[in-house]
Amino acid sequence: MTPHKTTAPQKPTLSDRLAYLALIIIEKVLGALPCSFVWKLGALLGAAAYPLSAKRRAIVHHNLSMVHPEATAQEISQLSKSVFRSSYANLLCSLNTSGRPHRNIEHILTLADLHNIENVPKEQGAILLLFHMGNWEILTKMHELIPNENPVGGMYRPLKNPLIDEHVKKQRESGGSQLFSRKRGLIMAQKFLKKGGFLGILCDQWAGGAGILTELFGKESSITPLPAILALKHQCPIIPVSLSTISPGHWEMRFHEAVHLSPELDKISATEELVKTMETMMRTHSKDIFWMHDRWKIKPSKRKLARSSEPKS
């Protein structure tokens, strides 16, 4: 019999240790500052980065053009600048708030439409449809912020740096949330859901070979089928969650009306049904969505076209 092979823990390299040290220092410095100040600082950095980041600027410009085909080139340019400011601001604020307990989060967060999760029976689980939107690290504090007794957890992708991965995972679980690795934690996540847990799944990024190719804003993209698969298997509701910026350093976490998938749907049809909800959320909250990734995997020639079509200010 072949012995079971275990994966040895990855040994941190020197660059891993330096990156980890830098993260700790940045978190300590930013964590000592008011969140509103950190947001404004990040917005200034985003404004400064916009004219210097040709590749990212082209990707953001292309993504927003897909989401808002009715907008003029000038409007897309202005919206792209807003996305740079808010993305940098939210990123810095995530470092500012990541280590805070929930009692230090409540004054910078407004909860809305809680009835959409309060109506979920205690014994029934739910999928929380999440997006890289606003200060998304606050989502990891949800267990302590919502009135439900249901436990809250989420799927996560382990980071390459083992020191940072352990640090971030520990921070995210410090408030009572449970994390399940996309690589090895799917079985445990399903047990969690079956016992009445609220399972958060990020849905707004390119899913690669694990995704289903379907149209998003009229163009084929790879969409994760995981929310649809789990909702169909466990016949639980899917609750979209938005996290939008109200003012510098203050966000609104809104729980939207639940989506109930017909048990007659297969995973492809169910995912296509969820795409409608995704499009509404991503279009409504364009300024707060993280658009700096290649959502449609556009080709270099198209990036060049996106840059050349942008009006000069």
Layout of SSEs?
Blueprint: H1 14-31, H2 35-49, H3 54-67, H4 73-97, E1 109-112, H5 115-118, E2 126-130, H6 142-145, E3 152-156, H7 162-173, E4 178-181, H8 186-194, E5 198-202, E6 212-216, E7 219-223, H9 226-234, E8 238-247, E9 250-255, H10 267-284, H11 300-308
Parallel strand pairs: 1-9, 2-5, 2-8, 3-4, 3-5
Antiparallel strand pairs: 6-7, 8-9
Helix/strand-derived class? alpha/beta
Order of helices and strands: HHHHEHEHEHEHEEEHEEHH
Helix content: 40-55%
Give the total of domains: 1
- Based on CA atoms alone, the radius of gyration comes out at 20 Å
Number of helices: 11
Write down the overall geometry: globular
Q: Estimate what percentage of residues fall within beta strands.
A: 15-25%
Mean pLDDT: 89
Q: Give the strand line-up of the largest sheet.
A: 1-9-8-2-5-3-4
Number of DSSP strand runs: 9
Distance from N terminus to C terminus (CA atoms, Å) equals 69 Å
Tell me the major beta sheet: 7 strands, mixed
Low-confidence stretches: 1-6, 298-313
Outline the structure in words.
By secondary structure, the protein is an alpha/beta fold. The strands form 2 sheets. Strands 1-9-8-2-5-3-4 form a 7-stranded mixed beta sheet, sandwiched between helices. Helix 1 (14-31) crosses helix 4 and helix 3 (54-67) packs across helix 4 (73-97). It has one domain (14-308). The protein has helices spanning 14-31, 35-49, 54-67, 73-97, 115-118, 142-145, 162-173, 186-194, 226-234, 267-284, 300-308, and strands at 109-112, 126-130, 152-156, 178-181, 198-202, 212-216, 219-223, 238-247, 250-255. Strand 8 and strand 9 form a beta hairpin.
